[in-house]
């Protein structure tokens, strides 16, 4: 009789509410750490490196440089002088952030890589949005290069967004 009770039990699906709460707190902590690290690193660069000055870190590979990006990712539209560029970029950022928050809040069981990826994207996007609302531009300072080829200058928030997107893409392509 005892065996039949055990066999009749259906396996539980999903994550229990306390575990879900802890998971969400950890994901929020990841987003907050990304936001804080990005804001602190931008502050340090702005306060210690004059604008457009290059500080070699690893000769032939990596510099720190104080640059302002009024455009979108990888400097797209930075040369555009139209008045609506900044409001448009802010609007797109807000819409994407709302989408990420809604996806996370409505999905009960995300794979860890999707969850961490979205937390990284959220922290990075919030930090860049904060800069864009505050000053209409984003501080970029990480300059990687090989010989005369320089990759686009970027920041910690951009890195978090790229890594987060990579985690999500890998999960979609290689998911269980």
What can you see in these coordinates?
The protein has 176 residues and is α+β, with helices and mostly antiparallel strands. The protein has one domain. It has five helices and four strands. Strands 1-2-3-4 form a four-stranded antiparallel sheet. Helix 3 runs antiparallel to helix 4 and helix 4 runs antiparallel to helix 5. The chain is globular.
Summarize the structure.
With 176 residues, the chain is an alpha+beta fold.
How many domains in all? 1
Q: Based on CA inertia axes, which overall geometry fits?
A: globular
Mean pLDDT, all residues:
85
User: Helix count?
Assistant: 5
Rounded to the nearest angstrom, the radius of gyration is 21 Å
Annotation, overall tally of beta strands: 4
Please describe the structure with a list of short key phrases separated by commas or semicolons:
globular, 4-stranded antiparallel beta sheet, alpha+beta, 176 residues
Summarize the helices and strands and which ones pair or pack.
Blueprint: H1 2-8, H2 17-48, E1 54-58, E2 62-69, H3 85-106, H4 112-135, E3 138-146, E4 149-150, H5 156-174
Antiparallel strand pairs: 1-2, 2-3, 3-4
Helix pairs in contact: 2-4, 3-4, 4-5
């Amino acid at each position: 009789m005892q065996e039949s009770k055990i066999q009749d039990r259906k396996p539980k699906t999903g994550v229990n509410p306390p575990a879900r709460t802890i998971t969400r707190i950890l994901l929020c902590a990841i987003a907050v750490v990304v936001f804080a690290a990005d804001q602190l690193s931008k502050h340090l660069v702005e306060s210690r490196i004059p604008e457009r000055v290059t500080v070699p870190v690893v000769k032939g590979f990596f510099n720190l440089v104080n640059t302002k990006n009024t455009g979108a990712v990888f400097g797209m539209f930075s040369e555009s002088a139209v008045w609506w560029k900044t409001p448009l970029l802010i609007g797109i950022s807000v819409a994407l952030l709302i989408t990420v928050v809604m996806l996370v809040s409505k999905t009960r069981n995300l794979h860890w890589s999707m969850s961490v990826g979205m937390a990284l994207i959220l922290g990075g996007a919030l930090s860049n949005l904060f800069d864009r609302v505050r000053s209409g531009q984003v501080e970029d300072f990480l300059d990687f290069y090989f010989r005369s080829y320089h990759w686009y200058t970027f920041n910690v928030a951009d890195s978090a967004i790229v890594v987060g997107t990579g985690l999500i893409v890998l999960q979609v392509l290689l998911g269980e």
